[in-house]
Design goal:
Layout (H helix, E strand, L loop, with lengths): L5 H24 L8 E4 L3 H8 L19 E4 L12 E4 L9 H10 L8 E5 L4 E6 L4 E6 L20 E7 L6 E5 L11 H4 L7 E2 L1 H13 L20 E4 L2 E7 L5 E3 L1 H25 L6 E5 H4 L4 H7 L10 E5 L1 H11 L1 H13 L1 E2 L8 H8 L10 H4 L55
Parallel strand pairs: 1-3, 4-13, 6-15, 7-9, 13-14
Antiparallel strand pairs: 2-3, 4-5, 5-6, 7-8, 10-11, 11-12
Helix pairs in contact: 1-2, 3-9, 3-10, 5-8, 6-11, 9-10
């Protein structure tokens, strides 16, 4: 949008990257490029348009108009791919301005349009693509989660590479952590961990690791339901340290020193709230308050621990037996389309029946977003999760005193103030201290 030949330059870069990918694939398969007779391609709307040489700029502002929402059949040569002179290329259809051909691939792979119950499919990434429905109706939307799930905007964040912390557990009593890093099967408290990771070096924390870290800190009471790192617990553990006007939790002393900061928690809250708000909008439009099945797709989604994702509130409450990773579902859908003309006709028909929900113009998105900032959620119940996890419970109005119990009969944790003192409920009409704002959530 800012450079006259910006789109053209990016098209050349995308095609060069695709050409490189195909070159590596044929080398791995041990075949010659001229033996490639057919390609199938999926990608998000921007990548889709750039690859095909279509103007992507209308996708940068409302109403986020696609140049085409149909499948495209062209030649491999037209896309700059080194293949047989007669090789064809099939590009799956996009669904909406921010729901691309990759989402079509996910739908083809996971077939929510054949489900009897309500199935939620989420391709988790910088821009999460969400599909909800069953054999009777299918809805799709996208939600701007940002890059926090991929390790960006996190103080010690990094991509999922050897040495990155990917699994975290925190003892509920001692508040001591243990973790796993990519490249080793040992936990950090097991004998031989230091020797096994000496060549890797514990270098940072990736997306799956930060999700588990925040969820574990919440379960341990270090992070409150509102996402505050409770500095009052510093008397219990040296892991909780002052960090300017806030507190951090030291996960690994280092070097390098890896901590979960207040800003890290906020970044994860913002990302998961955007995703959850998009999901909630689709549920509103579908007319349901719960889902029967959940599939987490994408490279990142395939590495998320579903229990921690639900503790965090990234996904709605559901029977955990019906929640699983779908792996690279977009790639699987592309493979199905590559091998089957019937599958191509099927996904083209299904995509035309998908109802598109544009979260950017939905008036209730902000309301759902604010409610989803809480961990797991400010309003939505979690009966399935409560069966397998002992959750800290946010007291209802008037029941915050120590000893109060929730509806399941469990003892409630008192809500605590900045210095760890229990907060008594405020009587209706009572005045608050100067500068104190009443929480009416």
């Amino acid at each position: 949008m800012l450079h006259p030949d910006g789109a053209g330059e990016m098209t050349r870069a995308v095609r060069a990257a695709l050409r490189g990918l195909v070159g590596r694939l044929v080398a791995q398969a041990g075949v010659a490029p001229d033996e490639v007779l057919e390609l199938s391609v999926v990608g998000n709307p921007i990548m889709h348009h750039l690859l095909l040489g279509l103007d992507p700029t209308p996708l940068g502002s409302a109403p986020f108009t696609l140049a085409t929402d149909r499948a495209v059949s062209t030649t491999a040569a037209a896309l700059g791919v080194n293949a047989n002179a007669g090789a064809r290329a099939y590009v799956l259809p996009c669904i909406a301005g921010h729901v691309g051909a990759d989402a079509a691939g996910v739908i083809l792979s996971e077939t929510p349009y054949e489900a009897d119950g309500v199935r939620l499919v989420v391709d988790v990434g910088t821009n999460a693509e969400i599909v909800l429905g069953n054999r009777h109706r299918l809805l799709a939307a996208s939600s701007p989660t940002g890059p926090a799930f991929e390790g960006a905007q996190i103080s010690s964040g990094q991509r999922a590479a050897p040495g990155a912390i990917e699994r975290v557990r925190i003892d509920r009593v001692t508040l001591e952590p243990r973790f796993k890093v990519i490249g080793s099967d040992l936990w950090s408290d097991e004998p031989g961990f230091a020797e096994a990771t000496a060549s890797l070096a514990v270098s940072g924390i990736c997306g799956s690791g930060i999700i588990e870290a925040v969820a574990e800190l919440f379960l341990a009471g270090v992070v409150t339901p509102d996402g505050i790192v409770d500095g009052a617990l510093a008397v219990r553990s040296p892991r909780i340290v002052a960090d300017g006007r806030t507190f951090s939790y030291v996960l690994h002393e280092g070097p390098p020193r890896i901590a979960v900061t207040q800003n890290d928690v906020r970044a994860i809250q913002l990302a998961k709230a955007a995703l959850r708000a998009g999901t909630r909008l689709l549920m509103d439009h579908f007319g349901v308050s719960e889902v029967d099945e959940i599939r987490l797709a994408g490279a990142f989604g395939s590495h998320i621990d579903v229990r921690h994702a639900m503790v965090l509130g990234l996904i709605p409450d559901c029977d955990l037996a019906n929640v699983r990773s779908a792996g690279n579902a977009a790639g699987a859908g592309a493979l199905i389309a590559l091998l089957s003309g019937a599958a191509r006709r099927e996904i083209e028909d299904v995509v035309r029946r998908v109802e598109k929900i544009e979260t950017a113009v939905e008036p209730r998105f902000q309301e759902h977003f604010v409610a989803a900032m809480a961990i797991p959620h400010r309003r939505d119940p979690t009966p399935h999760l409560a069966e397998v996890v002992d959750l800290p419970v946010r007291p209802e109005a008037g029941s915050g005193a120590p000893g109060a119990r929730d509806r399941a009969g469990r003892r409630r944790r008192p809500v605590r103030g900045t210095h760890g003192t229990p907060l008594a409920p405020v009587a209706p009409g009572a005045s608050l201290a100067p500068g104190v704002q009443e929480d009416r959530r």
